[in-house]
User: What shape does this take?
Amino acid sequence: MENLENIVEEPVVQEKQEYSSIRYAFGAVLAFFGISSKTHRASKKRAKFVGDVFTYIVLLFGTFLMVYPFWWMIAASFADTTDGATSTQVIREIVWWPTRSTVEGTFSSTHKGGIFWNYQLFFTEGLTVVNGDFTFWRALLNNLIYSIVPVVIGVITSASAAFSFAKINWIGRNAVFYFLLAAIMVPGPSIMTAQYAMYKSLKWQENGLVLIIPGMFGSIMTAFFIRQFLFGLPTSIIEAAKIDGAGYFRIFCGFILPLAMPAIMAQGLLSFMGCWNNYMGSYIMIPDTSNAVNLPHAIAKMDGYGGGGRYANTNYAAVIAGSVVCVIPVMILFACFQKLIIGSLMLTGSKE
Amino acid sequence: MEDSIAVNEAVSEEQAVAVEAVPQKKQRKPINQAKLQDNLWGWIFCIPLIIGTVWFVYICLVLAFLLSFTNYNIINGGDMFKYIGEMGQHIMTNPETGASSPFYWYSYAFTNMTQTQYPMNELGAYLFNTVFYMIGIPIGMILSMFFAVCMSRDIKGGNAFRVLYYLPCVASTISIVYTFKLMFSQQGVINGILGLKDFDGGGGFQWINLRGVTDITWNGLIRANGGTPTSESAFMNDPYWCQGMFTKLVIIIMSVWKGLGGTIILYIAGLSGVNAATKEAAQIDGANGWTIFWKVTMPDLYPVIFYNIVTSVIGGMQIYMEPTLFIGEQYITSGYVSLIQVNGIKAGKSSQGAAYGMILAVIIFVLTMFQFWLDSRNKD
Assistant: This one.
């Protein structure tokens, strides 16, 4: 009964209410921008349009913030720092483009660099200065070995474990799975010293095996995500293959690997990026003087590990050129497979 | 997370039971054969992962635990396995009294006050930095929630934004640190935007420095009274928690910037899972956008947010690379892991590093359990 009265009364109250002309005009302006108030009701279309424009402005501003440091990095790598007196000024004062860049060719007549002068420096002498006969190509080769061999083998071992956990019934399966999953509770840094001592007595450090062998055994998180994906595949395929006389190994190679390829690829790419950027592993486990250090480690060495000095004192632009070289491969890879990677990450988000 | 595992397992077990039930009636022998095959191949397929995890995680954990009671030194200690084997002879002794004290490094971690000029010990200083960097976690969460809500609107090019925001996540930390270091340098672009280039007598504001030396107060910092603006103010000098404040600030900005994309994707996935029907019903009932967000969307997003908090706290406790690359290993800025690295690996005192590592593991475990406890209380 009360409700009914309210409904009847409400319009009457609204009609009686009088607004000042200023309030009325303000309401009209608000309605124009898609905001409903007591005087005016904005149309839904207008509200959506205004909201979209606002969203675009915010997102484009955010995109600018996200992309600008990369642009800055590229611009800095083209700075002409050959004149010792102004070299630090030139690289630090960059906003959009260096005041003296190698592109414009304003550098002194004594040095014969081209557009890619800083890159050339980085490729030819940058790393040699800090590590003897260590060249850029050696660093690149190291990085490729550290990020391809363990990732490819590790993803396959993880996938096989995931297949075993998802599709084969064996005694103690869940117990073993949770036993392995508990390993992610152990923080890496807290077992770092023991690992260091172990790798030292195994003699894996000077030759860089420390960054290859542990990765080849796969990782439990990768196995976990592939397992989640395999639960979505019908078991009937495996049963059918079994009836046709295929062994488990054949099923794994012939059915599971091709069918789970999207998940395997996404996990593999993510771990590839992790291994490519693995500065910490190399810095902690591989000695400074070894020729097995990877690319990020070598670049950090040019800067004296953040302390400044070494090669960076004379030419910071070469360090930045090295940073660009370090970023470009993963960027290209990410650009090619962004759909797969983002999709896999989205799946993670919705699963958890 | 655990719910979905349980559901999946229940489903797969049901399927397996259903499949096995059919041939069981007809013949008996092949089933046992098949079961044997199942057990055999199940183990074979996951044996590499088991070996890897046990070897590189569990055995190392046990070794680290044992090492923390010894006086092992990586530089002149010889082979570690041999050392652990005859561990009884190498129990840590107190260097002052000469008495055998296996828990020496643990008590040292909580008592030693000589290493820093802080009113706290070394462990406290590094732990304070680590916790300070965690300010970035809530900031990053709010920002990424804002961007995720923007992106999940029905607009064109939402996917492109997603990809662009994820770019910093795939880039190598080292490249980003060097870029930020130069952008925040004294004559850098950030000082240009903020108009701080005339600090320190025209040198520019020093974001990346550790502590002030001259006695100039806040006035110098905010440029009141016409004084010479300087970045070396007493504010940076006196209370221990202010030292290197601006360096820490730059590191927080950088880590928030770098981690934003991953969190945004997580939240977008969560937002797309929110029940659209409930939202519509709320809209018809007259709820405005703000109410719908807090009362309908947020409860549905809760698992994603909880997962994000747990993982970021675990990751935040292990911050290492960013401070170290910005300014080197310093007790004013470095995170807890530097303590392990400096003592356990660089200085060679493996046992001390292992003890610090065990303390870190306990801290992370307790923090995680505390979060799960809060979560369970929230559900009641």
The longest helix of chain B spans residues 29-67. Residues 122-379 of chain B form a domain with the MetI-like fold fold (CATH 1.10.3720.10).
